[in-house]
């Protein structure tokens, strides 16, 4: 798995599904950390228009550009839907934050040829 982590972290453009404007939530922390680490990051949350001055999009399909990787910070049932959306859009790198993963979502992603990172926190791996 470490080589998969390095491969996913080498992607330059990310989307964070489950962004929050609550600074104590992981959706906010992941979005903010990826930006600080130098990535180009899109925010995904159908309930928000913007976060810290950045546009927030309702879905991956609504993005102006396909991201290279997606960080998922939502409940497992929603993660399963996001995996399907990633597959249909040709997004091949997904990082499921702890608590967002399910066996079904992991297997569905891997079956579709998606590199799936789980049981690892992107916050830890992007701190320099």
Description:
The protein has helices at 2-9, 26-36, 76-89, 103-111, 122-126; strands at 13-17, 40-44, 50-51, 54-57, 69-72, 93-96, 115-117. The chain has 128 residues and is of the alpha/beta class. The chain has one domain (2-126): Rossmann fold. A seven-stranded mixed beta sheet has the order 3-4-2-1-5-6-7, sandwiched between helices. Helix 3 links the parallel strand 5 and strand 6. The longest helix has 14 residues, at 76-89. It is globular and about 35 Å long. The model has no long low-confidence stretch (mean pLDDT 94).
Overall average residue pLDDT: 94
CATH superfamily: NAD(P)-binding Rossmann-like Domain
Beta strands, count: 7
- What's the CATH first level? Alpha Beta
**Alpha-carbon distance between the termini?**
20 Å
User: Could you spell the SSE succession in H and E letters?
Assistant: HEHEEEEHEHEH
Strand order, main sheet: write it out: 3-4-2-1-5-6-7
Q: How many individual domains?
A: 1
Strand residue percentage? 15-25%
Features:
5 helices, 128 residues, seven-stranded mixed β-sheet, Rossmann fold, alpha/beta
Condensed summary:
Residues 8-100 form the CoA-binding domain. This protein has 128 residues and is of the alpha/beta class. It has helices at 2-9, 26-36, 76-89, 103-111, 122-126; strands at residues 13-17, 40-44, 50-51, 54-57, 69-72, 93-96, 115-117.
């Amino acid at each position: 798995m470490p080589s998969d982590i390095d491969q996913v972290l080498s992607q330059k453009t990310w989307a964070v599904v489950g962004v929050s404007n609550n600074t104590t939530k992981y959706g906010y922390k992941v979005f903010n950390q990826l930006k600080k680490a130098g990535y180009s990051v899109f925010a995904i949350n159908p309930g928000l228009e913007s976060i810290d001055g950045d546009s927030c999009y309702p879905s991956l399909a609504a993005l102006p550009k396909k991201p290279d990787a997606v960080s998922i910070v939502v409940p497992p049932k929603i993660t399963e839907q996001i995996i399907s959306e990633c597959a249909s859009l040709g997004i091949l790198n997904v990082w499921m934050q702890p608590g967002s993963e399910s066996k079904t979502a992991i297997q569905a992603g891997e079956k579709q040829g998606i590199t799936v990172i789980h049981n690892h926190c992107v916050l830890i791996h992007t701190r320099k």
